[in-house]
Amino acid sequence: MRIELKNFKKTFGDITVIEDMSLSLESGEMLALLGPSGCGKSTTLFAICGIHRMTGGQLLFGDRDVTLVPSQQRNVGVVFQNYALYPHMNAYENIAFPLMIRKEDRKTIEKKVSEIAALVHIGELMERKPAQLSGGQQQRVALARALVREPDILLLDEPLANLDAKLRLEMRSEIRRIQQQTGITAILVTHDQVEAMSMCDRIAIMNKGDIVQLSSPQDMYQNPNSEFVASFLGNPPIAFLDGVVTDGGVQLASSEALLPLRGQHGLPSSGMPIRLGIRPEHFQPENPLKVTGRISFVETQGREELYDVTLSNGSVLRSIQRQGGGYHLGDEVSWGIAENQILAFDASGARLHMGALA
Amino acid sequence: MNTNFKSWPILLALGLTSVPLVTMYAYMIIDTVTVSPPGSFIPNGISFGSWSFLWEAPAPGRPSIWSVTLNTFIFACVSTLMALSVSLTGGYALSRLHLPFRGFFLGGLIVLHAFPTITLIIAIFLILQMVGLYDTLAGVILVKAALEIPFGVWIMKGFYDTVPWEIEMAGLTDGATRFTVWRKLVLPQVQPGITALGIFAFLSGWSEFILPQVLAPGADAQVLGVYLQSLISDDTSMDFAKFKSVGVFYAIPVILIYILFNKHLMNIYGGGTKG
Ligand SMILES: Nc1ncnc2c1ncn2[C@@H]1O[C@H](COP(=O)(O)OP(=O)(O)OP(=O)(O)O)[C@@H](O)[C@H]1O
Ligand SMILES: [Mg+2]
């Protein structure tokens, strides 16, 4: 089912959490709401499922205006961050609860519950109380409870936050599989960018109650429209160089070094400050646009090695390379930046679109 | 038990100091079923004579012990039920709903709870007389329940505060009404509080003396506390053995409840303090 949120506004007393936000999801799409803590992700979810009343704006499910429809009649499944299982009921009763509320008959309930339990692989745990389940199992029960009444929309509020790394990986693909299998429209709230990128069709990055960019994971990564988005996506994170535009290129701050970005158009006029964002995979020994610095930090990440290179002006660039480069802490290196991969931003953090001169 | 901590000195000290108490209780019970020669504490015969009030017809003008017991039971049960039902709903409202004047209500509860009953008794007496409930069991039950309510609401609010609100939100999105959520999802979470509060209110009702004494002294509405008191104040026939027996009879339900439910009673201190 399509979801459309128009000019959504939410205040708590005098605190305005969301000023004016619009968002729309295609039917069957899975969208990640990604952003730093306190930016209003949960608030948005709670408005969509009807727990919070919207201060302003409009919410449409398909063609139906549900702005004023109470939670009970929205048919939205929610998985809460802390699962919110009913502690006094066992797994079966938890999952069956929404169906019991609808007064479906026992046979139907039994059938639906066992189907959904099989889907999330918890068939053998039905007798257990939530306290007797592991975090991952509780999460699956919560997911099953949200899915069992075939909701039009599934909302997941940081469902994987409490899991260990391995389970998290498993559940990621499992949730995605279930979502695609059931064709449900879903919103996943997270502040884990890897989760957002690997599970969702599109990502909406939020900051301070506003969506700053909405696009596919790939596009978001390659074409961030602001410094905030660029620094939010990517692990290890992007590094920035401050500088000033000159005739010959970009003069790095407090240093003699000049990056001769002659092949680029779209640079602002001379004298303007500029920030260059360089992702670790675009700072490599073999690239032509050399900068010189000293390796100030080495981190081994299994297959790859992460180096921090401190330039003479104190800025730090990161580089991620295959094992076995033979570089050591303290080495002076001269590595190159992939010129056409540089992301440039102006002083306000907005993206400057540069391109190679044809 | 912490093994670093030597427990026997404490046990010894507690044992020694409680010997006199235990002796007294034991003797009180033994004394009601035995006879001792004058001037001796050692009983030399068994007699249930002092328990005869249980089966003998009461003296003229006096209620029978069984009707008094029934009254006491009704009094304790009904006032408990009333206090519980108001505490369960009121506590929830204070904990969860955005009531106007919520702070005022909370403050008022504490003040009401701290207010000594006895200072209200004249006003209550006048009110009961005016509405025609003076000297009836119903009237005194209402008063007792009303006086239990502030404490109950306060305790239940504490229990409700510990229930995660996501559980309720999950219930709502699962399609349940607010009432069903309260009934099916929230009440089970505060079950320990309900049990403890129920027992407390029952015990408090069972042992209530001053309210029935002042507000329902007549034979029809008499409860055990008042009955017991009327035994001593009756100076024509002072019968200490009978007095003791009635006392033991009166205490038996209390002792039983403490033995059966002492784990639940501890809950009120364990669970109801957050908030
Ligand atoms: N009931 C409330 N009353 C007042 N302010 C609130 C309330 N709920 C949330 N807020 C505020 O709204 C802002 C957004 O909260 P929200 O829970 O949506 O953040 P979030 O993006 O989900 O963060 P996190 O990633 O930490 O869960 C926060 O600054 C928070 O303090
Ligand atoms: Mg949140």
Automatic annotation (TrEMBL), chain A:
What compartments host this protein? Cell inner membrane
Q: Name one GO molecular function term.
A: ATP hydrolysis activity
Q: Which domain of life is it from?
A: Bacteria
SMART domains referenced in this protein's UniProt entry, alphabetically: AAA (SM00382)
Tell me the Pfam families matching this sequence: ABC_tran (PF00005), TOBE_2 (PF08402)
* ATP-binding recorded as keyword: yes
Name of this protein:
ABC transporter
What is the protein's species of origin? Answer: Pseudovibrio exalbescens
**High-level lineage:** Bacteria, Pseudomonadati, Pseudomonadota, Alphaproteobacteria, Hyphomicrobiales
Automatic annotation (TrEMBL), chain B:
The yes or no answer to whether the keyword Transmembrane is present is yes
Q: What Pfam families does its record include? A: BPD_transp_1
Q: Where is the signal peptide?
A: none
Q: Which UniProt keywords apply?
A: Cell membrane, Membrane, Sugar transport, Transmembrane, Transmembrane helix, Transport
| Ranges annotated as spanning the membrane | 7-30, 73-94, 106-131, 137-156, 243-261
Q: Which PROSITE patterns match?
A: ABC_TM1
Question: InterPro entries in the record, alphabetically?
Answer: BP-dep_ABC_trans_perm (IPR050901), MetI-like (IPR000515), MetI-like_sf (IPR035906)
Protein's name according to its UniProt entry: Maltose/maltodextrin transport system permease protein MalG
- What is the species of this protein? Pseudovibrio exalbescens
